[in-house]
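Objective 1.3, modelling of assemblies. Example input:
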Amino acid sequence: MKYEAEINKRKTFAIISHPDAGKTTLTEKLLLFGGAIQTAGAVKSNKIKKHATSDFMEIERQRGISVATSVMTFEYKNTLINLLDTPGHKDFAEDTYRTLTAVDSVILVIDSVNGVEAQTRRLMEVIAMRKTPVMVFINKMDRDGKNRYDLLEEIEAELKIQLHPMTWPINNGKDFKGVYDLTQKSLVLFTAGTKQTDDDDVVEISDLTSTMLDEKVGDKDAATLREDVELIDGVYGQLDKSEYLTGEKAPVFFGSAVNNFGVKELLDTFIQIAPTPRDRSTNTRNVSVQEDKMSGFVFKIHANLDPKHRDRIAFFRICSGRFERNKYYHHVRMDKDMRFSNPYTFLARSKDVVEDAYPGDIVGLFDTGNFKIGDTLTEGENFFYTGIPTFSPEIFKEVVNKDPMKTKQLEKGLMQLTDEGVAQLFTQHGGNKKIIGCVGELQFEVIQYRLLQEYGASVQFNTLPFYKACWMTSNDKKKLDDFTRFKMANVAEDKDGHLVYLAQSEWFLNTERNNNPDIEFHFTSEVHK
Ligand code: G4P
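Predicted structure (tokens):
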């Protein structure tokens, strides 16, 4: 328990949302509270604009920004907060899924006007799978949004999560007057155009029958609030923190990020109840966060698009012990000891070389091609952190080599880019056809561009008619062998040699499932089993 104090000080989380719900704005406000930035507007939106699908400068700019803001570390009320950024663009969803394996909790931002949107649904599936604790921030209350009860119902039904209101809004849109903090029993008043930065606009109203409430918000709204709070208290009662920590209940806050309203309530609750780094499982045993020996895993690899700077950065999440600069660690997959002379942290968005780091921290390791997503470093023991899934891609294309003189370079490029997690590489079973699978079209452009720029290999892609890659497992080897032989055109191997069935449509997949009850078809695969 050498590092208990350091561990208990840390909270590592990510903000997720559908694009435009307000993630960037909320991030900025949180950083302002943490003193990590001085002015609004300092955090650049990391969105790739919708029209920019073939604009490489835009991709490059985006990648630059996202390295700078990949991890933002700041302190607030003696808590060290590591905020991991997730890409907004849906074509980079796979990156977001993996970032979620490195956090201990998430804040989900929902736009009160649009409610639950497509990308939020998919992200929540990943979160539910991992039972990650979630807090919800319902944003843009200053706009005419959905009815608050309807919103809660929609979120609960759509995301299959139970909510627990922590604050309650008084109207919305131009009539938005503020929120009542149900735990602190105080009224936080909203004045459009003014920014809530301290406690000026907070009025303690422990007894809602007090006439002070009527004075502050008017008789009608005071009466509605009294009714609402009675109802909410009756239905929800006190938040059971353990239910939040197991991912069963999500505390929910109402506010307006752009007005910095309701954000402080969120942050104050966050530092009180959000989990500190927790124990994690590996393929051999559970690793306690309190163990003295250092261990952790790589969840993201970032390559520099500038050909003059071909370095890569591996993002390493520490899970136990103390990480030290220049100390030798064991790279389990490569069975090799390595040390890092320039690991860096992301304190206040400047890249500083660190001497040491603790569980919950993310360090950036300069990499010359040694790392793959999911790689584990230890002090000698052989294990891999589990729970780092690979998801089925959604678009599949055959790689056509346009320059046979550059075959070697192409193979190297494909291997390295897919190690970074830019895309997934499959090889047709019994053949040599290379198939790239991605979540979005944008990645194909990135791959084509990078293969040419970085490896001198020129490729073209032919679209294939598949909709999902399903990893196959079976206890009956013969049945699996037979299936593989009969369905040769639809079977491929992933980079680790695992068999996948490439389904043309849901109908085909269901048919194969029915016809082959001894074979299981999975939409995800564990990096380490
Ligand atoms: P994202 O990272 O989730 O994609 O969203 P982002 O924070 O960039 O916010 C998207 C838009 O919503 C921005 O407007 C932002 O100003 C606005 N916004 C954020 N919070 C609120 C809020 O509480 N109320 C209202 N009314 N708007 C909010 P934009 O016009 O796209 O950009 P900008 O020019 O204002 O920066």
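The pocket of guanosine-5',3'-tetraphosphate is lined by residues 17, 19-25, 45, 47, 88, 139-140, 142-143, 256-259 (CB under 6 Å).
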